[in-house]
Specification:
Shape: elongated
Oligomer: single chain
Number of strands: 5
Strand content: 5-15%
Helix content: 40-55%
Largest sheet: 3 strands, antiparallel
Number of helices: 13
Radius of gyration: 26 Å
Strand order of the largest sheet: 2-3-4
Distance between the termini: 68 Å
Order of helices and strands: HHHHHHHHHEEHEEHHHE
Length: 282
Amino acid sequence: MTTPTLAQTQQLFWKLITAPEGVASGLAALPPSARAQAATLVHLGGRLSAVERLDVYADMYFYRIRDCLKDDFGAVAAVIGETAFHNLITDYLLVHPSTHFSLRYVGRHLPGFVATHALGLQWPYLADLAALEWAIMEAFDAADSEPITPAALTAVPPERWAELRFECTASLRVLRLDWPIHEVWAHAQRRQHLDGIEPAPTVIRVWRQELRVFHRAVDVTEGTALEALTRGATFGDVCELIAAGAGEAVGVERAATFLQGWLVDGLLTACTLQTGDPSVPS
C-alpha cells in the first residue's frame, strides 16, 4: 500500500468525522484501499479502537457546530430546551451538513427545516423565530454603508422630491411572518416563557446601526414601502402606494413620517434624482 499524501489523509479524515451516521458507517462506505489507509490515521493502543478514537473527533466536530448554532439561534434553544435543541440540530445536520469552511453559513437552512420538523409542529411559531434570528445574523454581517442625514435632503427643491430614489442599507431585512415573533424573542432574551401567543400577520424590519442590530415590528404599509424602495421605487412611487389605501393627503403625510424614521434609524445610504442628476450631497 502506497503512503497517502497529506491532502489525501486530510480528505479521508474529514470524510470519516463528518459521516452523517458516524465513523463506523463512513468507514464501511469506503473502498477497501481507503479503509486500509484509514487504519493508519490513529495510533492504536489503550482501551479505544481506531473507530472509537475517530469518534472522539467526530463528536467534537458535531458539538462545535451545535454550540455555534446555539449561539446563532439562542431564542429557539431557549424556547424548546437543551435536549430538544440537541435533537433538532442532529436531525438538521443529517439533511444539511456543513459545506463551507466557515460555520457562519451552517444555519442558513434551519428556518425552512424547522417548518416541517416535528418540533415545528409542537411550537408552530418556531420557524418564524428561526427566521428572525437568521435575519439578525445576516444584518450583523452585511456590508457597511454610511447613512445619509436629513441635512442631505435640504438641497432638493420641494417640487422634485417625488423624483428621489433612495438606496437602503445592505443590512435591511423585511420579514413577513405569521406570528408576532418579536414578542417571543424578547421574552427569550429575559429567559422568560411567553404563554398564550396567538398567530397574527406580522411585519418586522431588521437592520444594523454601527455594530448593533435592531428589529422592530412595523405595519404592513411601512413594510411594503420599504420593499418598494429596495426594488428601486422613487419617493413619489412610495407616496402613491400609500395613498392608494389611505388617500393622497394621508399618503404624503405617512410617507414623510416613514422617511423621517428611516433617516433616524440609518436605513437610507444614498439618494439620487430620477432624471440621473448627480447624487444628492450627504
